Amino acid sequence: MASEKDIINSFKNTIGDYFPGKNPYTNVQVLMLSWAETDLKGLNKEIKALSKLFKEGFNYDVSTFVIPSDGNQDYELNSKVLGVNKGMPPGSLLIVYYAGHCKSDDKGQARWWALEDGGPSLSWHITQQLLFHANSDVLLLLDCCDAALIARGTKETGRFEMIAACARNCKTVAPSSESFTRALIKELEPHAEEGIATPELSSKISENKKINQNAVFHDFVRRTPTHIILKRISDPPPKGFGKKPAGLIVFVASLSEDPKGKEIAEWIKAASPSLVMGVDIEALVLRARQLQSFDESSFASGPLFGRLSPSARQEIFQALYKLHTTMDLASLQATSKRGEAIESLVEGSVEDIQKASDAVCDAVETPILQELDPAGHEAARHDPYIATTGTSESIRLRQAVLRSHNDFDDGPELLREKIIFKRFQKQHSMQVGEFENRFVILEIFFYVENPVNNAPYPETLHQVRRISGLLSQAGKNQRVNFFHILPCLGYFHDSVRHQLGLVFEPSLSSSSSSSSLPSSSSTTANIKTKEPPSSSEKLATLLQLYKEQKIVSLGHRIHLAHALTVAVEHFQRVGWVHKGIRSSNIVFNTLPSEEESAPPPDGIIGTEETIKKSHGGVATAIARLASFDLAQPYLFGFEYARAGDAGTNMEEDHLLENNLYRHPDRWGRPLARFEKFHDVYSLGVVLFEILLWKDIDSLRKKDRPGNAPVKSTDVYDIIKKKCRSEFPHRFGDVLAQIVLTCVDFGKQTERKNEYDSQRYFQQHISGRLENIIGKL
Question: Whole-model pTM above 0.70?
Fold first, then answer.
């Protein structure tokens, strides 16, 4: 015998919706679609009239999306459709209206076109497949030729119906008094209060004497005898973040709790990509699934999110739309291609998921770091969703940089007698050695002795302790690879040679974020020992590689340029300025022996190759040059690094090899306090060098022969001249513009706030290089 619950559900699914006065929906979203480029006169007028009817006559929530013509229209449309439907619970209704052109492609599938003859187009049948996965009911209203050209699919829950202007292989009337949209408006208007079912609406449109073609009604589901009813909602639907039904929101703790995520992970693992391990795949998919819950998280509905700027919130949701699109496409592939895991397709999905997840993390992290005050940082640091994005550790680092938190420790002092220099060079700042039988990299600073006590001045010692602590804190960051720094074990003091030094261990750079690092200011550090280092361990600066490796592929140089822009962007994101970005402070360590000795792939000739390695669940490039990886540079030269808003002493430095990388205002005796854009200028000089694969001093001498005095603007003038004349031909307009943006960054962001300046960097420098990397 049927239970009471079964009887109620049966009633709702059959005759319940037809009872007078009952409105089946309290949440209706309407998405109006049309092309930015169109040859249909009067189209916008019809769209506005229908939008007004849905808004004012039916109290529906209406959004308009103009399909772009920039080559990304498929992606943008899919993102928009998924974004609108995201968060709509079962029992709500999504109406998708389209007015434009439609034709069948060579496979007989629907393709939307901006113009009747040619122009931009997109695959409507793919977008339609995504709608089969919507939680809500779906109604399509299509005013185009071939409107009834449908894609088949299965919808597990809810209704999915369509009213099309005409049948397959038929034409419809252009915008006019006889158009489908005008008839739709005419028949909907008088039924707003009492409601009208979709089959009846379709019949009334077909009966309109002005319509030449019969409207076509189609039910994709056909599980129940009832249909979608369009009726006015008494009160407008709630705006923004509404309270979700209890039990709807689930923050996934493991893939065992998430059938959809588990299916994606299993599909990926079935292909067994040689560069990705199964455990990494599960971590990657789980992270993406957790990030998808943002708009249902406590943070997104709380006061901190409301304190972010509108542009920041928009960036977050745009990134989320792309992640939803990526995951839904992966789910669709996993479902439709079960048992058919094509390796190239799977690897593409893995890279897309990683990229989309990183984009969400960046979109969340950037404004939280730069728009919230210290109290907001502390609240965000303990939010469970923010922890998923990795932002909590970045907040902790920003607090350390700005000294806005009292529990930050300076770096520990290591005993000098425990450090063995392997190849000591008196005047060289970078050394290699051993500490407690472990290979370490040492950065040496010579200090001026205080005549009172023959020790470093207190300010000098304080600076080294502080930098050591910051680098140690950065080494604990989950996203440390983006900073391109090695974790710092501490500092040492050599009173005999008047030296202070920072001690780094390369092996920790690939360890997990939970690695044990010294955090107290005790006189010695409790550091584990390991096997003696290999005698083949060595270092090379970028300045050395310019001279030792004469020919380097452009692809390798772009990988290096991208890595450095990512590093500078992350430094600036946490408010940390470097002040010493130059090729002598960019260091490469030898590759691990198994990677260094690995045979090159087929077709690779010489000492260069680009291969991939697994890192954090994804394949990352190794741009191998001899025994070094150009895609993994490390930044050093932290002698004067500080917080971006801290006071700056106007240190004089008249060394030409340093000044060549500095902004003209910072040469010799500085004319202005150090700002973030000065680091970006220095980055531009290094990128200029990398593309030409020659140090800036050599380039300057070649451009300005003779013994003329060197001016502070010489380097800037050379870069501007070559980027406008030579670079577009040799490297393309995009790379030329990236370098120009760097050296003019101060002018271009002069009136922008911190967040908008950061976004400008991401969009015009690091983002553009990211796009180039994706095409290599």
Answer: no
